[in-house]
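thought: user wants a sequence for this fold. calling inverse folding tool.
action: design(structure=
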């Protein structure tokens, strides 16, 4: 158990993108949860929720500003433009780092079960610096969503990336873990792969994921595929090794094919084979294009990293006043 003279200052970090439909209920539930945790001695009175507006096009920021004025538990950060979920989440975590003892990241759509938030803090008090929220099951997912999601984790494991199975971005990180995260400077963010690299003691909290409270998913199939590819190319060079091995295999098979062609020619078996030639050209051409595409993906990552552009830029920050901090 951590030796603390007071309960820990806990920050809920919530990335938001076009969440005006669900945000009022999200703020209501998280406020109730903060008060409940404070009554149980699991959270300090200065604990807050930090809502990060990732360049929303609806009234999300207006609502955050309104809730900030009405609710002392609410703080807000507005990004200058849309930077994507991972960058918005990182911005929130880095903003909360100097203000909290631990931060818990969760989605705004209320699919992450808020009833288990107490368990996150209890494990933190038991000495864990990172606590992962892991889904018990995927009964609410369609067959396609379940198959692709579980396939993604298995592929990542096969490629050598250390990811937690059935864990998204519902997790607790201590200030020490957040400081460790701040040392990772890559532009192409994949937090599910970075956090396990930080080390420190970790544990799991298992929960059942709910249906989205309102609005539409911000992760359609196209974004999910892009996210998966980002994860693979950010944390594994195994695809490049597979291409090399595949190239060696094709070269060996080509030698056998050449020997067969020579034997057929001298034995008089050779017959003009237009179909075989065309199929071979298309097959090898397709494989070459595929391999070039994989290599190009890695070169694109290098291009982004070398430029080292800012991962996010804060346009506005709403925080509690000095008088409220003293209270």
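)
observation: tool returned 327 residues.
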């Amino acid at each position: 158990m951590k030796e603390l003279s007071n309960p820990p200052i806990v920050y809920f970090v919530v990335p938001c993108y076009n969440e005006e439909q669900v945000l009022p209920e999200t703020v209501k539930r998280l406020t109730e949860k903060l008060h409940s945790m404070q009554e149980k001695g699991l959270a300090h009175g200065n604990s807050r929720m930090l809502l990060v507006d990732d360049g929303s096009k609806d009234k999300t920021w207006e609502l955050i500003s309104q809730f900030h004025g009405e609710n002392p538990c609410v703080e807000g950060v507005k990004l200058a433009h849309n930077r994507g979920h991972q960058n918005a989440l990182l911005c929130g975590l880095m903003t909360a780092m100097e203000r909290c003892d631990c931060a818990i990241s969760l989605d705004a759509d209320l699919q992450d079960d808020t009833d288990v938030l107490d368990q996150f803090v209890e494990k933190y008090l038991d000495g864990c610096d990172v606590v992962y929220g892991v889904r018990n099951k995927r009964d609410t997912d369609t067959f396609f969503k379940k198959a692709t999601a579980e396939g993604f984790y298995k592929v990542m494991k096969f490629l050598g990336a250390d990811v937690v199975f059935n864990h998204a971005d519902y997790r607790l990180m201590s200030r020490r873990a957040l400081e460790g995260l701040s040392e990772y400077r890559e532009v192409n963010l994949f937090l599910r792969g970075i956090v396990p690299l930080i080390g420190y003691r970790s544990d799991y909290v298992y929960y059942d994921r709910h249906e989205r409270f309102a609005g539409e998913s911000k992760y359609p199939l196209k974004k999910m595929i892009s996210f998966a590819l980002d994860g693979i190319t950010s944390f594994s060079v195994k695809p490049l090794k597979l291409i090399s091995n595949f190239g060696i295999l094709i070269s060996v098979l080509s030698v056998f094919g050449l020997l067969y062609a020579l034997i057929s020619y001298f034995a008089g078996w050779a017959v003009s084979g237009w179909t075989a030639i065309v199929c071979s050209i298309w097959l090898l051409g397709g494989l070459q294009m595929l391999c070039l595409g994989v290599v190009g993906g890695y070169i694109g990552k290098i291009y982004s990293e070398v430029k080292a552009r800012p991962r996010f830029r804060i346009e506005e920050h709403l925080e509690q006043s000095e008088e409220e901090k003293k209270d």
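thought: summarizing for user.
answer: Here is the designed sequence. The chain has two domains: 10-216+312-326, 238-307.
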